[in-house]
Amino acid sequence: MLYLNGLPQWKQQYGEDHILYIDESGINTNETAEYGWSPKGQRCHAFKSGGHGTRLSMISAVRSNAPFKFTQPLVFHGSCDRNIFVCWLEYLLQDLKQKDDQTKSYLLILDNASIHKGRVIDDLAARYQIRIVYLPAYSPDLNPIERAWSVLKSKVRHMVAQNNKTFQEALDIVFKMM
C-alpha cells in the first residue's frame, strides 16, 4: 500500500522525469512464433530448429513519464545476478547525475527480487542520494516496465521471424525505435 498511497506525492516531490522503474527481463533465441494459422480442424505446424536456444537477459529503466522509452538498456548472455545488477545500477546512476538536473533527486521503483536488495544497493542509494521503493510482492501490474518488456519482446520476435534478423540485431533496432 505504501506504493499506491505514495505515488501521487512522489510525482510532485520528484517529478515524473525523476521517477524510474527498473527491472530485468529475458528472451530465448529459440522463441519466435507468437501465433500461427491453419485450416479449421487441422493442427498448426511451425518450422523450428531443435535445441533450447540462447538466453539473452536485459536490464533497463523507464521513466514515469516515458514508460516505453528504455533508459540505459543492457543486454547480455545468461542470467542476471546481484553483481551484474549492481554494476548496471551504478552505471545508470552515474549517467543520470552527469546528464540531468543534479539538484533534483531520483526515486527508483523496483520489484522485490533479492538481487535488488542488500547493503551494496543501500550504499549506492546513499552515495547518489536516491530513494529506492520496492513494489509489493507479486505485483508486476504496478510496474510499467513490465508492459514495455512485453512490447519489446513481441517486436523483436516479429522482426526475427519476418525480417531475417538475429536476436541481437533485432534488440538493437527495437531499443532504438522505442
From TrEMBL:
Limits of the Tc1-like transposase DDE domain: 19-164
Top-rank taxon: Bacteria
Secretion signal, residue range per the UniProt entry: none
GO molecular function annotations of the record: nucleic acid binding
PANTHER family linked to this entry: TRANSPOSASE
Name of the protein this chain belongs to: IS630 family transposase
Organism in which the protein naturally occurs: Acinetobacter lanii
